[in-house]
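Residues determine shape. Take a concrete instance:
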Amino acid sequence: MKITLLVVGKTTDPCVQRLVDEYASRLSHYIGFDIEVIPELRATKALTTEQQKAQEAALIRRQVQAADHVVLLDEHGKEYRSLEFASMLQKRMSSGIKRLLFIVGGPYGFDDSVRSLAKESISLSKMTFSHQLIRLLFVEQLYRAFTIINHEPYHHE
């Protein structure tokens, strides 16, 4: 199985990007992992929220393959403790999924056409974080999950 994190817009903070890269590198010891970036829309002031979500959705849908197991990172999704997230990942790996695709949407969330592609959605917190920080939080949790799965001394309960 391969895991892909699909995000809208690149990270502009070099400190955050360095940390994302560090955890992505660590993940490569466990699983194929990559981050795909969809360019941010331009001239969004002329667009309504719904138009912006629809345009982002068109770009997102181009990246989704028919066999992907799509998981949205969404504030209304299911919350997991780290151990539960690791268990969920282990189940997905055992199920024969070829690519597990996690998607971070744009600033206004997901268009219904993207929601319809998703098998599930998860929330990293009830709090709101910037899209740049969500990448870091998610990649760290993904790394943490693999250390839990492999019984390595990173996570402490």
Q: What stands out?
A: The chain has five helices and five strands. The helical segments are 14-27, 49-63, 82-94, 112-115, 131-149. The longest strand covers residues 69-79.
